[in-house]
Amino acid sequence: MHIPDGYLSPQTYIPLYAAFAGFLAVALKKIRQTLSAKNIPYLGMASAFSFLIMMFNVPIPGGTTGHAVGASIVALVLGPWTAVAAVSVALIIQAFLFGDGGITAIGANCFNMAVVMPFVSIVVFKLVRGRASGGWRVYLGSFLAGYIGLVVAAIVTAVEFGIQPLIASANGKALYAPYPLSVAVPAMAIEHLVLFGIVEGLVTLLVLMYFLRNDPDNVYALKEVK
User: Does residue 112 sit within a domain?
Assistant: First the structure.
């Protein structure tokens, strides 16, 4: 899902840099206000977990890669704003040290995986879970949170580089990503619907089950249910 350099035009990646910077500023402020001392080590662990799981990249048609992200489980356990910071750190390190994702596309990649995905995931989880504090609705909600969160992030990514032939071309030739929406969206959506989304859903479910057994009082997404 990492977009490389040369795939996004400045009129796309500059606004996405600005949008991501705004979300990150809010996230850092909220973390300082709300993250307890006990959960501070979890922030570093969350970033490391996301970094590790995203290193298993599989190239797919359409000019990008598919993989799990880990943003959904971070959002459920620590909150979506914490996920914004944790996943962003992993993505920035990957871009600068490993060339995984372009430098010009950092804002876009962080927006897609560290902003869109955590907030979609937390909304899906709460809708499916309802008022349940345990049982099948919580488990189903966690799986769907990971599955739908990743698929939505993938589609947003596909739209970003799929619109490039429409907004940045010369003499009928695309200056940046050459794949139109008709290629980019199906390529990204199908791969994540049938494979990567399932992996993300299972990872989210299994890790949440661990926290529910060992530290249920500190699961962000369940704190309002007593």
Answer: yes
